[in-house]
Amino acid sequence: MPHVVVKLWPGRNDEIKTNLAKKIADVVAEDLKVDIGDVSVAFEEVSRDDWGEKVYKKEISDNDAVYLKPNYEYE
User: CB 59: neighbour CB atoms within 10 A?
Assistant: First the structure.
C-alpha cells in the first residue's frame, strides 16, 4: 500500500518508466507518510485508438475519484 497505476499511450522505454516510477514513489511516500518500500508503481499501456473507450469513458469521465481531470474530452 499504496499502489499507483499510470495509464499511457505506448512508446516510452523502460528507462523513462523506471525514472518516472521512482519520482512518483518518492512523492507518494513523502506525502502519505509511508515507507518507500511500501509503494508500488505500475504502467499500463493503452493504444491511442482505445484510449477514449477504455480509459476516458470508463475511468475518467464522471468519476468523482479522479482529483485532477484532463482538459480534453471524448464523445
Answer: 12
